[in-house]
Specification:
This protein is of the alpha+beta class.
Length: 135
């Protein structure tokens, strides 16, 4: 089951049905401080909820290569803001940008199993369905 950010309420002060945005932010900061102290890594204090938003968007672009999908998922209105995710993805993952794992399916059950683990349908050749998934 895929979580869709667009289904969340866009008004009001509550996030996920409990607590305010400020409460969630304070809880995140408190946990970040605890983790940074426990691991002895003060750089963890630089991670914010907004940083996580950028990371999620970058990973989503890496998986789909569809900037309009990422734009819709984040609720952005300006495509110029979305270009940073393309640049981030290219900078971080440029060495394996277009490498795929390929699989074939000879039956509906095999195709269903491949789709369930993240493979995408490519085409049908001589009755064999071809699927691929990014490495």
């Amino acid at each position: 089951m895929k979580f869709d950010l667009n289904r969340l309420k866009k008004d009001g002060d509550r996030v996920f049905g409990y607590g305010s945005v400020n409460h969630l932010r304070r809880t995140f900061q408190r946990q970040s401080k605890r983790l940074a102290y426990k691991l002895g890594n003060p750089r963890l204090l630089n991670i914010t909820l907004h940083t996580l938003r950028h990371w999620i968007a970058t990973i989503e672009y890496l998986k789909t290569k569809d900037i309009l999908h990422v734009m819709n998922t984040l609720g952005q209105r300006n495509i110029k803001n979305m270009l940073r995710y393309i640049k981030l993805e290219e900078a971080i993952f440029k060495e394996n940008n277009d490498e795929f794992v390929c699989k074939t399916a000879h039956s509906v059950e095999e195709a269903k199993a491949l789709v369930e683990v993240g493979f995408e349908y490519v085409c049908d050749i001589e009755g064999v369905k071809l699927f691929r998934k990014r490495k």
